[in-house]
């Protein structure tokens, strides 16, 4: 199954027109909201017109699967070199006790990401007699070696303040990311579950692996 998943990634990147499955490089999301953290991050992160790049370029390191007539669970260990999120952002709050406010374009880059993705689903049959999978839960862990932030138009376009804030964010990326990591993982888990179901509910299980 490891090789099957690895080989499927470039296919999914381009899309599968016959099943009306659009490509996932980039993954496009209408909106994404990351809630406040419990430590250093006291700001709700609102993103629109989100595009996430390079996920299909991942390397699948290990796959453990439990698949029976009434159980479907696949756990994959994946490494991604550079995952980039580009979006329109809106921020108004505090990070590291410093005020942060702005709206505009942004890029958030996660480098050398170690990820564990756990899909839990159920088998079901359609009227055509074929067996499909519906993913009920998609858990994601994202552990990057580094995160880089680039928020344009902070503080009403004050270039000096904006550059200083981006420098602070990047110098303290680990504390900042770890505080909101559960929010990113939960939000992206829901995105990946929706994408997985677009695929799994259209292609019979025995035609996938």
Automatic annotation (TrEMBL):
Gene Ontology cellular-component annotations: extracellular space
GO biological process, one term: circadian rhythm
Record keywords: Biological rhythms, Signal
Record family assignment: Belongs to the TO family.
PANTHER family membership: CIRCADIAN CLOCK-CONTROLLED PROTEIN DAYWAKE-RELATED, PROTEIN TAKEOUT-LIKE PROTEIN
Protein name as catalogued: Uncharacterized protein
């Amino acid at each position: 199954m490891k090789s099957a998943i690895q080989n499927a990634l470039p296919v999914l990147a381009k899309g599968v027109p016959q099943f009306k499955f659009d490509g996932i490089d980039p993954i496009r999301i209408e909106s994404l909201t990351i809630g406040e953290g419990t430590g250093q991050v006291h700001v709700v992160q609102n993103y629109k017109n989100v595009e996430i790049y390079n996920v299909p370029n991942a390397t699948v390191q290990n796959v453990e699967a439990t698949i029976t007539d009434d159980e479907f669970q696949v756990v994959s260990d994946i490494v991604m070199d550079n995952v980039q999120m580009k979006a329109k952002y809106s921020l108004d709050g505090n990070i590291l006790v410093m005020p942060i406010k702005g709206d505009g374009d942004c890029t958030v880059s996660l480098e050398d990401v170690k990820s564990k993705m756990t899909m839990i689903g159920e088998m079901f049959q359609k009227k055509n007699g074929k067996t499909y999978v519906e993913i009920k839960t998609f858990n994601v862990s994202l552990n990057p070696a580094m995160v880089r932030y680039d928020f344009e138009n902070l503080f009403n376009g004050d270039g000096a303040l904006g550059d200083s804030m981006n420098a602070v964010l990047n110098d303290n990326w680990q504390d900042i990311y770890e505080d909101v990591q559960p929010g990113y993982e939960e939000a992206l888990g829901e995105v990946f579950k929706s994408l997985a179901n677009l695929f799994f509910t259209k292609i019979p299980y025995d035609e996938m692996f």
